[in-house]
Amino acid sequence: YKKDGCEVYDSAKMTLEEVIAVMAPAAQAGKTVVRLHTGDPCVYGAHREQMDALDRLGLAYEICPGVSSFCGAAAALKAEYTLPNVSQTVIGTILPYYCKYVFHNDDWMYSTLYLVETLVIVFVIFLCPLVRDRLGKRNLVVIGSVIALGGHALFLLNPTSFTWCLITTVIRAIGEAPLNAFVFGMIGDVVEFGQWKTHLRQESFIFAGGSVSIKIGSGVASACMTSIMSAFGYISSTAQNVVQPESAITAIANIYKFSPILIWGTVLIVGLLYQLDKKYPSIMQELAAREMC
């Protein structure tokens, strides 16, 4: 439903820059602008980067909750229940460009790939606690990193096939799930470790630091990608007939091909160096003994 004279744009065919280029001038002109999303904005919504862009432009906005009433609190706080990690930021930001300029499809391929990846991640997250006690959080994250690396390495065998991309996206998503499932649990372990080491419990400080770091990492990743694209001649425009230079298309393809390898390789190295899982039982025993004294 819309009023007569209302301007309507199909965001499925638009990049982030194109969406902001439409919204910002209209809002600055005093018009009412609605950015309509499917689902709910606080659960794996794609609105974080849009909010950041509007904040940079000094434009006020309001988030209306979606289909679920429990999401009203998150919308009022401008928060998300499922914060994306750096890998999801990279993939979620560059994938629309990859689909448009490599797969030559800006209608449904991006939505399909992103939906499939999200559903697989959520499904596997629910399975992770079933094997956590046997394998441990750190080991599951390491195994997941190897699976994510392997899945994306397989994608490189045929990077121009959408079907192959869909299959390897499922594999990569299986590997991404453990980090999504346990990252804040591992931060919680650091709280106990800090209390054991320093006799001070800095719970709010550590969790706030973790949350801020996720936002900074996502922001830096987005800035790096857009800077690389601009450096290689990407033309940001709302016009549908803009022809991108070959250098920009190559840059887009290389970002999508190799950034996840770099990110999950780093996660794997950090996971191998993380040793708190082994010390955690004895730390908790000592903390319990201190409480009894």
Structure in words:
Helix content is about 70%, strand content about 0%. The chain is built from ten helices and no strands. It is globular. The termini are far apart.
Q: What's the overall geometry?
A: globular
Biggest sheet overview: none
Low-confidence stretches: none
Instruction: Output the structural class.
Output: mainly alpha
Mean pLDDT: 83
End-to-end Cα distance, whole Å, is 67 Å
How many β-strands, per DSSP?
0
Beta content comes to under 5%
Helix and strand string, N-terminal first?
HHHHHHHHHH
Helix content: 55-70%
- Using only CA atoms, what is the Rg? 21 Å
Q: What is the helix tally?
A: 10
List the helices and strands and how they pair.
Blueprint: H1 16-28, H2 48-57, H3 72-77, H4 86-101, H5 109-135, H6 137-155, H7 162-198, H8 203-231, H9 246-273, H10 276-292
Helix pairs in contact: 4-8, 4-9, 5-6, 5-7, 6-7, 6-9, 7-8, 7-10, 8-9
